[in-house]
Specification:
About 20% of the residues lie in helices and about 25% in strands. By secondary structure, it is an alpha+beta fold. The chain folds into three domains: about 325 residues, 3-Layer(aba) Sandwich (Alkaline Phosphatase, subunit A), CATH 3.40.720; about 55 residues, 2-Layer Sandwich (Arylsulfatase, C-terminal domain), CATH 3.30.1120; about 160 residues, Jelly Rolls (Sandwich). Strands 7-6-5-4-8-1-9-11-2-12 form a ten-stranded mixed β-sheet, with helices on both faces. Strands 18, 20, 23, 25, 26 and 28 form a six-stranded mixed β-sheet that branches. It is globular, with a radius of gyration of 25 Å.
């Protein structure tokens, strides 16, 4: 009854364009140009967070213009949380096949042998860049520069602790951001577009808002600070809605919309609009109970509200303005779709789960397929057809008649429910067989031959003794309560891929009592010891800029301390950081260790 449809990406090798160029001259040359690609990915923004989908609480004219001037994929699906969606978009394959099992401490990385959209397009002659939240691995070979992106500016963790001039990285080097992070990311993207306007480019803008902490510039906040919010009456979300959180999320979305507008204006000013595909979507359902079209669930769930997000795509040369695609689609479809639009012929390194939607987006009268779209996160899983969604617990809903998933219909359609349950069980078994969910099998990599600077953040470390992590959400955390206790240490489970000598720096804070203590870094039989000579006491930052009290930890302005040079042999082991000397509690805190290769 149901089957997975596969479609091979193909190319006409520009045959018609070449002939047309001879006959019709310059205009035909323009027709033959490979399209530029600009991809916006919002973070924790739900289907209902844009005005195009009926939200009465804000206006998003720039995002909405993509629907007016292009197409909407009406039923578009991603994953329940951030890193799985990124993996699926970047590869065209389900994250459950690729080793993604968490959103931090290495579990966000998809396997090294996967092929990314950036690698595909770079081989086809594109300049490639990513600006924003990567969330698919920090160290090589998982870093964006190692996965096909010529340029990267942003951060690699799952969330960031401060959004105003924060510590970021540019092509692996740590830098200081400038202004509000979304504005800063957009400015870098525009500069890249301007530099590469004479060749095809792929620009990926994975924004990190409206993910918490809920920080946004004053100019955006003022419009919403006292705004009366209309709730999602279809689900009566007013019972659990945090109005202040909703206001902040909408203000952050408004800021995103303004930045989308800046990019669209840049493309138009450079006379590239006709030759540029602009795509906008989000990575999961909303991070709060707010207007979402009456759908059940939010971020973290495998119901419609957790998985369905806006997807708008504009390409004037191929997509008619105001189009609507009824066929279900997902993040796994974007790589093959964009590759077909760009006439890129390639053999995928591994079989794709996604299919190209270029035909239906281009107006082809293609019958709705009977494909299945699967989703899983933690102990939850579900499968979606054009009409039904079935959960792993056997609950099934008719989404055409009941988009809010309020009335189970498995008893009405027992044959359908049985077939979908079997398909879901097979899919879970098949994909998880290749997914190493055991963290013990995924050490942090150090010493990759192409990596100049390896970052080892507190996020990826384990605390021992009295040392504590600053917050239960690890992505932007630091280690505190660090002292000279015999059991106190900070360690990383690492695999040194190639022997080398590294210059080591530590980002830290320290009380006066830490001055004179010995900082010791050891790996196997190699040890580096240096005296701490300078205190650095610094307050927490972020609370003043928060519009809503956060659950994540706060940040600090960290000092840098050179520890010296350390030769690391190839192999796996524990890289241990200790403080020898003061026994007083909490004399030092550690945010990040960096290892710069100086000799191989």
């Amino acid at each position: 009854m149901f089957h997975q449809r596969e479609k091979k990406v193909h190319s006409n090798k520009y045959l018609w364009s070449a002939v047309a160029a001879l006959v019709f001259g310059c205009h035909a040359v323009s027709e033959a140009r490979s399209p530029n690609i600009v991809i916006f990915l919002a973070d924790d923004q739900g289907w209902g967070d844009i005005s195009y989908n009926g939200n009465p609480n804000l206006a998003t004219p720039s995002i909405d213009s993509l629907a007016r001037d292009g197409a909407v994929i009406e039923h578009f699906y991603v994953c329940a949380v951030c890193s799985p969606t990124r993996a699926e978009f970047l590869t065209g394959r389900y994250h459950t096949r690729m080793g993604v099992y968490s959103t931090s401490t290495g579990g966000e990385r998809f396997n090294e042998d996967e092929e990314t959209i950036a690698e595909v397009f770079r081989r086809a002659g594109y300049a490639t860049a990513a600006f924003g939240k990567w969330h698919s691995g920090m160290q090589y070979p998982y870093h964006p520069n190692a996965r096909g992106f010529d340029e990267f500016y942003g951060f690699c963790s799952g969330h960031w602790g401060h959004y105003f001039s924060p510590m970021l990285e540019h092509n692996g080097e740590i830098v200081q951001g400038s202004g509000f992070i979304i504005d800063d990311l957009t400015n870098h993207a525009i500069q890249f577009i301007e530099r590469n306007r004479k060749k095809p480019f792929l620009v990926y803008l994975p924004y990190n808002t409206p993910h918490s902490p809920m920080q946004v510039p004053d100019e955006n906040w003022q419009e919403f600070v006292d705004k009366e919010i209309v709730g999602d009456t279809a689900r009566q979300n007013s019972r659990s809605e945090n109005i202040q959180h909703t206001r902040a999320a909408l203000a952050m979305t408004q800021n995103i919309d303004q930045n989308v507008g800046k990019v669209l204006e840049c493309i138009a000013d450079l006379d590239l609009a006709e030759d540029t595909i602009v795509l906008y979507f989000s990575d999961n359902g909303p991070n709060g109970s707010r207007f979402n079209g009456g759908m059940k669930g939010r971020k973290g769930t495998t119901h419609e509200g957790g998985l369905r997000v806006p997807c708008l795509i504009k390409y004037p040369r191929k997509i008619a303005a105001g189009s609507t695609v009824k066929q279900v689609g997902g993040a796994i479809d974007l790589l093959p779709t964009l590759a077909e639009f760009a006439s890129i012929q390639y053999e995928p390194r591994k079989p794709l789960d996604g299919i190209s939607l270029a035909g239906v987006l281009g107006g082809a009268n293609v019958p709705l397929s009977s494909r299945l779209l699967f989703s899983a996160w933690k102990q939850r899983a579900s499968v979606r057809t054009e009409r039904f969604r079935l959960q792993a617990d056997g609950q099934m809903y008719d989404l055409l008649a009941d988009p809010g998933e309020t009335h189970p219909v498995a008893e009405q359609y027992p044959a359908v429910a049985k077939e979908l349950q079997q398909a879901l069980t097979r899919w879970v078994r098949e994909t998880e067989a290749s997914n190493p969910v055991d963290p013990e099998s995924r050490p942090i990599t150090v010493g990759h031959r192409d990596e100049k600077l390896t970052q080892l953040p507190a996020r990826d470390a384990t605390n021992h003794g009295n040392v504590k992590r600053s917050n239960r959400f690890p992505n932007a955390t630091y280690m505190l309560n660090w002292s000279g206790g015999s059991e106190d240490k900070i360690s990383w489970d690492v695999e040194v891929l190639a022997e080398g000598t590294f210059e080591v720096e530590m980002y830290y804070a320290a009380a006066a009592a830490a001055v004179g203590a010995q900082v010791e870094l050891s790996f196997q039989d190699r040890t580096l010891t240096v005296e701490m000579t300078q205190m650095h006491e610094t307050p927490l930052i972020g609370a003043e800029e928060d519009r809503v009290e956060r659950q994540e930890g706060y940040e600090k302005h960290w000092a840098k301390m050179k520890l010296g040079e350390l030769n690391l042999p190839a192999g796996r082991g524990s890289l241990d950081l200790r403080l020898q000397g003061p026994k007083e509690p909490n004399v030092a805190e550690m945010r990040l260790l960096t290892l710069r290769r100086i000799k191989q």
